[in-house]
Amino acid sequence: MRDTIANWHNITLITLLFTQVFLAPGLNTGNALLQAATVSDRATKQGASTYYVSDAAERFSSDLTQLRSRDLLTPAAQSRARWRQAMMKASEEDKALLQESFAMQEHVRIDREKAEGQAASFVATLREVMGNHGAKSCRELTCGDLGYCDPGLGPEVTCRCQAGYEGNGLVCNPPADFVEHALIAATPGAAPPQVADLHVSTLSGSRVAVTFRDISRQNQGFMVIGEAHNGGMRWGAATLISGESQVFSPVTSEMPGSGILALAYRRQDLAGDGVLRCVRRESDGSVTFGKPYMFANLQAQAMSLVGMPQSRVAVLFAEHLAQGKTGERHFEMHGSSLLAQMSPTDLEAPQLLGKYHFADGPVSRISVAPLSPMLFAVAFREGQDEAAPTMSREASVALAELWGSRLVFTTKAIPLEPSQDKIWARSVAGLGNNAFAYTYHSGAEQVTKQAVLRLEPDSHRLVMLQEPQTIATGFTPFVSTVSTVQQEDLQMASQLELLQSHGHRLFTFLGSAEGARGEGTICAVAQGLPVGCKNTGRTSREVVSVASAPVGDGRIFLLSADAKGSPPIALLACLVDGEMDTLSFTLLRQSS
Questions:
Q1: pLDDT for 533-543, tens place per residue?
Q2: N or C: which end of the chain has fewer CB within 10 A?
Q3: pLDDT on residue 117
Q4: Residue in 373, 576, 367 with CA at minimum distance from that of residue 485
Q5: DSSP, residue by residue, 150-167
């Protein structure tokens, strides 16, 4: 009798575990298993056998095997053969009854097979919880939300955490600090790469495009395509951008829905030609470069690109126009933009559609952020205006919109800090509903600030949702801000569902209070404002430049370089537990 009661106790416990793991609505697997393990721990403390859960799982598995092998569970093929024989001999009236009977039998068989499969998965998963591996197929395992089934090389499969998370594959937690990996491996016997002018842009299909200049190779430019997956990043070959000239500050942007990229760079560090090219991604992961189009002279700063619909691209740059004769020459300076039509099929040189000014005077440190397929924000540093010498325009911002085949700056540029100069690094990122965050470093104050602005649709005016607020103290040579606000064709269905459930995320990376060690912050976005911001750790070394971009599955790719030009990478993944202000981000390491 005591054994019977013990058996019923085990069966009750198994049923409880099964219910918590598989039937709790809205409960993720890892948390469910953790709760189940707590139940097991309580039962053990009450005097039950230490191994009764494992023993019960083994008995459950044995009973399931016997059940499957019984003659009562007639194979489906044999059942169908008997039904066909009966139908041949039956009357018309009996055929209708036989068909109804067979349909009911098929429903029962399908439900039974589903139940058996779920039970087998439960047993295998329970073994994983207890540390007893043995599953032969990934169909038998239910891993945690942040885990995946690894088939491995042996006869057994197991749950593992996505690279960068720590745990047993059922319950996965973020590590405390960044873990960095080299993007480029040095060739034995050759000089190590010395990387500068880092840039990364988001591509469709959870991919990113990385461009950079290698100082150790006579300032040649390279592009490499990476794809994010469970194990980290899968990289294609680094492709030389131009064998005919040096490449400074290469930047890219993908045109929505086209699968092609625009590439812009200058051919010299100072007084270089500005070049625009079309880049096509091939099916094997390689890239093909189109013919160059020289759109400007006397370039000395990085441009910014915005991919637009219908294979068009907007280029934002600091323009210097030489005026007058030799010996009497002077320069006109503008913040300029051009709209170009790309040629994805034949890779011909881009065709100029129009050229426009967004500032009259010298500009620098241009940063852009798409707010919709037709609208984007432009942040820039503008020199002093002789008409208003007491007003600083070093933290300026404007909005541009595509109207047919024209690019129109629909709002007059406004200064965020009219009384402050020495505004250096900056970055803008969309927050949804025509709102965006403007993050910048104030050198005179030695602080980094963040403001939030939005375009009002009725008045078509820029309004301040959040006045500039200090988010960090101390000097930083870089500021990088990105968000999950992207074109829908650049995002996976799972990411869109995540955004609909939990809202957008804003990631900011800048120098820490201890110097140039990179430090990240992640915020939720509620009603267009960053909320619930949390620190994501620091890099292990000093960083002098950084680039980041979201990938289409909810993660953020981070690329940085130290003073030696070594470019480690990081991939950040979102962990959301259901509350808007409760979130964390963690590093997803590169696969080896």
A1: 888 777 777 88
A2: N
A3: 61
A4: 373
A5: E--SSS--EEEEPTT-EE
E-strand stretches of 324-434: 330-341, 351-360, 363-370, 375-382, 396-403, 406-409, 414-415, 423-432
Say yes or no to pLDDT of 484 above 90. Answer: no
Give tens-digit pLDDT for 54-72: 556 566 666 656 655 554 4
Nearest to 340 by CA among 376, 303, 315: 315
Determine the pLDDT at residue 144. 81
- End-to-end Cα separation, the chain, in angstroms: 57
CB 151 within 8 A of CB 138: yes
Backbone angles phi, psi at 147, to 5 degrees: -115, 175
* Amino acid at site 505: R
> Does the structure show a pLDDT above 60 at 43?
no
483-486 contact pairs (CB < 8 A, 24+): 483/429, 483/430, 483/431, 483/437, 483/507, 483/525, 483/550, 484/550, 484/554, 484/574, 485/370, 485/371, 485/429, 485/430, 485/431, 485/432, 486/202, 486/370, 486/550, 486/552
For residues 366 and 566, give the distance between their C-alpha atoms in angstroms, rounded to a whole number: 25
Side chain identity at residue 277, one-letter code:
R
- Provide the 8-state DSSP code for 67: H
For residues 162 and 128, give the distance between their C-alpha atoms in angstroms, rounded to a whole number.
Answer: 16
What single letter denotes the amino acid at residue 131? G
- Report field, pTM of the whole predicted structure over 0.70: yes
